[in-house]
Design a protein that fits this description.
The structure is a single chain. By secondary structure, this protein is α+β, with helices and mostly antiparallel strands. It has a single domain, classed as Jelly Rolls (Sandwich), CATH 2.60.120. The longest helix has about 70 residues. The radius of gyration is 34 Å and the shape is elongated.
Length: about 230
């Protein structure tokens, strides 16, 4: 089972002095998922009829930097088939609504786990229409204000999507810098050790080849004195 850290941001609008998550026009969820090697995990998100769902992934660390990403609709059909990429995204408007399955796959990697940034958001336009009708019943003509609110919330939702993509790229680049720094440190230490070993080896070999003074005197040839 994968480990994940969640950072949740909800676009909630106050209607009648009460805030209810079920009546909120938008949800934005940011997951940091640790996917083990050879594993596949799916996450389910309920989408209201007529609402828009957007989801994206960024592989931050691990292996070749790619992972499988697929999306299934509430009927079980793949609206986004599996594709192995470092970054992927999907957006659609659900007509019937239901639970969407967002699946991450790391089965091709048998040894390297992956760290993945998963972003999911849903946005409902029907709540704005409902609010407009309630205001019209009270003879309040606020069509322009409602249209402005709708435009602003739509742009805010787009900004949240872009911010998630930017954070994912930033986290991926940061992990790449850490890996490069560790690689350079290991090679530097290895080269220093190799240099010291080579230097010591050269000194020992040269001393053995040249010898010292005592060895030269002891190895001088001896002459025999014969009797005449």
């Amino acid at each position: 089972m994968s480990k994940f850290f969640i950072s949740l941001s909800v676009l909630s609008i106050v209607f009648g002095g009460e805030v209810a998550l079920s009546e909120s026009p938008g949800f934005a969820m940011d997951y940091r998922v640790h996917l083990d090697a050879g594993k596949e995990d799916c996450y389910y998100q309920y989408v209201h009829p007529g609402a828009t769902i957007y989801t994206s992934i960024n592989v931050l660390k691990g292996g070749d930097g790619q992972a499988g990403f697929a999306v299934r609709n509430p009927q079980g059909s793949f609206v986004l088939p599996y594709a192995w990429k470092s970054h992927a995204e999907h957006k659609e408007t659900s007509k019937q609504g239901g639970y969407y399955a967002i699946c991450l796959d790391n089965q091709f990697s048998k040894m390297a786990p992956k760290l993945i940034n998963l972003y999911i958001t849903t946005f409902r336009n029907d709540l704005w229409e409902k609010h407009t009708k309630e205001m019209q019943k009270n003879d309040l003509h606020v069509e322009n204000v409602t249209a402005a609110f709708t435009t602003v919330t739509g742009r805010v939702n787009n900004m949240l999507q872009y911010q998630s993509m930017s954070r994912g790229r930033e986290a991926r680049h940061y992990q790449l810098l850490l890996d490069n720094n560790l690689w350079v440190q290991r090679w530097s230490i290895g080269l220093c050790v190799a240099l010291v070993v080579a230097s010591v080896s050269q000194v020992v070999i040269l001393r053995r080849l040249l010898g010292d003074g005592k060895t030269s005197q002891n190895s001088a040839p001896r002459t025999r004195v014969g009797l005449v």
